[in-house]
Amino acid sequence: IGLMSVTVFPVRLLLLSFLMLLAWPFAFTASLGRSQFVIEPQSWWRRFIDLCLRVIMRAMWFCGGFHWIKVKGERAAASEVPILTVAPHSSYFDAIPVTMTMCSIVTNLENRSIPVWGTLISYIRPVFVFRADQDSRRKTVEEIKRRAQSGGKWPQVTYFYCSFTTSLHSFSGAFIPGLPVQPVVLRYPNKLDTVTWTWQGPGAFKILWLTLCQPHNPMEIEYLPIYTPSNEEKENPALFANNVRKLMARYVCVCASVRMCLQSVICHNRLKAGITDKVLEDQARIARKLQGDKLGLQDFAQFLKLPVTATLTQVHSLFDKLGDGQIDIRHYVIALSTIHRPSKSMETLKLAFKMYESEVREEILQEDLATILEIMLGVKNMELSGLFLDTGKITYDDFDRFIEQHPHYFDFKDHPHAKSCNGQNHSKDD
Q1: CB atoms within 10 A of CB 21
Q2: Final residue of a structural domain among 219, 252, 285
Q3: HSE (CB half, 13 Å, CA atoms) of 368?
Q4: What are the angstrom distances between the C-alpha of 229 and each of 173, 180, 360?
Q5: Where in this chain does the record put each Phospholipid/glycerol acyltransferase domain (predicted)?
Q6: Of the candidates 173, 20, 12, 45, which has an alpha carbon nearest to the alpha carbon of residue 95?
Q7: Which end of the chain has fewer CB within 10 Å, C or N?
Q8: What share of the chain is helix, strand, coil (3-state, %, to 5)?
Q9: What are phi and psi of 277, to 5 degrees?
Q10: How many CA atoms lie within 13 Å of 77's alpha carbon, on the beta-carbon side?
Q11: How many C-beta atoms lie closer than 10 Å to residue 391's C-beta?
Q12: Per mean pLDDT, which of 57-71, 199-213, 404-418 is the most reliable?
């Protein structure tokens, strides 16, 4: 990465800056004299500018390493589907599908004042949310309804959601009009995740630096089939949102998104102060005794020794996979440990093994290990059959030896035999 930082990174950064500045006069010119509330027929020169902007922005992302963007499915026309629901919103690079389609978005009013980028945002005529205005939510919903019911005259409105869990519930503006929506799933199937942003993770510049240092940054955009609401869903936007959430969750691994959303909830509500290694050990000990017994919201509150609040309800719902109000507390402890000590993944792994081990033998089942790795690494349906004997069980020591022999198979950087980016072993003196 050191070599890429002094060779590829500055060149890419310069090209990105140049292309963004090149796009600015086009967006500024096309925005002159155009109303944000009235749609008018698009003249030939505005259509030409729109085409130029798409080409420039695609060239910009290409220079950033997003050489080939795989698009699955087909985006429906605005007259057919006025609203796109996109998830998970986990990266600054989620703007890529917007620049490819020039759809409108829902964004904070403050973003309009961002130099250069704010002009590009204004060009696509977004629905601005002014959080200082107490009536902003109602106005935003009314504007979305007005555009959605225009019969395709307005560009499609793109709604971004941070995950496939509570975000769809917390603000159901996209579903209030009761019109068909098209779910869109974003994926970054890169071996080393440099694009995902979290509250405790690296800042914007570090993400940009690491991403631009990658030789290639793969991305997938999948347009799912149009979801047409039933009469019941039209009357109940929360039900509509929940059913769309379940549909989208089938197409991706939800665990990474759950961890990100859990981290956001913890940081926003200052819950992290009460989390220590000892607390995690105590919770794991109780979870082991439960042996997979599910906990409802009240039991979950007793487990954490906290009152039932909106925040606690939100955290509980993150792990309610089946939607039956019951969770496996072991999943919560593993995710919490992963967030609390991201540089100590082997300790989290050992903690997880203890929770899943039987009382008689220190072994866990293959499906249990798959669940642990799915939560910790965000990798679903990992092939593990080669690790197991005929018994279908494995001990922590056996798995630790496997990691030692295959250090690149799993991303446990704190393992004594893990390799760093330059191929050298980590040590305390590094």
Answers
A1: 10
A2: 252
A3: 22
A4: 14, 6, 51
A5: 83-189
A6: 20
A7: C
A8: 50, 10, 40
A9: -60, -40
A10: 6
A11: 10
A12: 57-71
Q: Which residue has the tokens 């992302």?
A: 61
Q: Under a CB-based contact definition with an 8 Å cutoff, are residues 116 and 60 in contact?
A: no
Name the residue with tokens 């004042």: 113
* Residue showing tokens 């792994």: 349
pTM of this structure: 0.65
40 within 8 A of 136, measured Cβ to Cβ: no
> What mean pLDDT, rounded, does the chain reach?
81
Q: If pLDDT is split at 50, 70 and 90, which confidence band does 201 have?
A: low
Which spans in 269-382 are helix H?
277-290, 297-304, 310-318, 329-340, 345-356, 366-377
Rounded to whole angstroms, how far apart are CA atoms 239 and 166?
12
Nearest Cα residue to 112 out of 123, 102, 104: 123
CA proximity to 183, closest of 261, 98, 76, 321: 76
Q: Which two tokens stand for residue 308?
A: 């039932």
In this structure, the answer to whether residues 232 and 165 fall within a common structural domain is yes
Q: Which of 106, 52, 97, 93 is CA-nearest to residue 73?
A: 97
Residues 273 and 232 in one domain: no
Question: pLDDT by residue (tens digit) across 338-360?
Answer: 877 777 888 989 999 999 987 77
Contact 363, 394 (CB under 8 A): yes
> Quick one: 279 and 244 in the same domain?
no
CA end-to-end span of the chain: 16
**Is 344 found in the same domain as 267?**
yes
Nearest alpha carbon to residue 214 among 66, 107, 423? 66
* CA 149 to chain CA centroid, nearest Å: 29
Number of domains in the chain: 2
Residue 191, domain extent: 2-252
Q: What is the largest CA-CA distance in the chain?
A: 76
Residue 351 and residue 237 share a domain: no
Per-residue pLDDT at 399: 85
The pair of three-digit structure tokens given for residue 15, joined into one six-digit string: 């090209």
pLDDT in tens, 121-140: 999 989 888 877 777 778 88
DSSP letter for each residue of 112-124: GGSTTHHHHHHHT
